[in-house]
Amino acid sequence: MTAASDIDNGEGAPRAVAGPDIQALAQALRKLAANAADQTAGGLSLVFAAAPGDESADNAARLRAAAGFASPHAAREAAEQLHADVQDAIISQTTAVINPLPSLGARAAAGLEIHPLIFGDKAHGALVVGLGAALDSVQRTALETTIEHLALRLDHASLWHQDEPTATPGDESDQNEEILKLSEALFAQDIELLRSNEKLGKIEKLKNDFIEKMSRELRTPLNSIIEGIIAVLTGENETLSDGAKQTLRSALDDGSAFLRNLQNILDLWRIKQNELPVEIHDMNFREMVEEAIFSIQDAVGEKSISVEQHILEPFPKIRTDLTKVNQILFLLLDNAAKFTPEGRIEIRASVEDQELSCEVRDTGIGICPDDQQFIFDEFFQVDVASSQTYSGAGLGLALVKDLITLLDGEVAVSSDVGRGTSVSFRIPVQVAG
User: Using an 8 Å Cβ cutoff, are 345 and 307 in contact?
Assistant: First the structure.
């Protein structure tokens, strides 16, 4: 992928920019295009601008710089596809969000955004960014800074192309003063942008260091504590009082729950960093379901809950990422058991057309329609009262969605308050034999 480039419009020299220093301004647009691509989760960017000083109605915005493309030709093809949407965004001076273009691949997998470059009350062009993934708040803030900087650059360039014959000496003085002020503002923006990029680098390093230290400093001793409790419970069970046994079992349950939450946080972070690989293995789905049911016995406890399996026959042997499917099943069953005071949990599964379909259905408390759109968000819990009654960090379903997306699958939820919830997913698999 090229980092950033001017775009030759077939008229000789690149028509990147205009202004008192064409080369410097062209370099600035290339740099800002590269910044925008870096700030969009490994995505891509295109900078569109009209010819400075041309106020005619047919002065359409043209592609001036791009980043994240394999070649200028690829950038021009994308610009042609987006041209109508870009013009609409510039005219309306409104940010537009459009669906991914198949031709752009993974670098715009999360969609495209068209941001008009507005300074004062005038739109000088537009920045198109392809999102490799959803942006976090830090990336979004950095992108907004880049958009402001681009708008200021283009506005600065346009001032040098105002019609000189109609200007009076007083107007020229005012214009020079305005240009001077804008130049000072532009310099200040340059400094702020450098500081923002430096801060982003430091923040990213801190995040990486924190995750690594949390993994080492928390998981290792926590595993030792859990293993120690298990050893005491199994090795000295006869000499322990009932109260001591209960205390140790409670400590074991709390430690195991904490370790799972920690693992969920680490897995979510690795997915966002593209550091959780997909590993394909043969798997026995029925055995995996049995293991997942056994693993949620603590969550079921003494509740009056039956767990039923409905696996559609014939169910072939399949190949997929065994570890991730196992994790998905456990998280869905654990969530169902947590929010089902009594009743039934059903697991339904089938394989058809190289696709595994699975549904976990419960007769629990259900989810109101207003909350259903948020249940896959990280740290989301239905309400404060529920979070006090039902333990958890609100990460389980968020991780389920990310894992299913990582496996190129889809997930859906349906629920009725007081009657239960159904979470279903579909993932592509390889059918063995």
Answer: yes
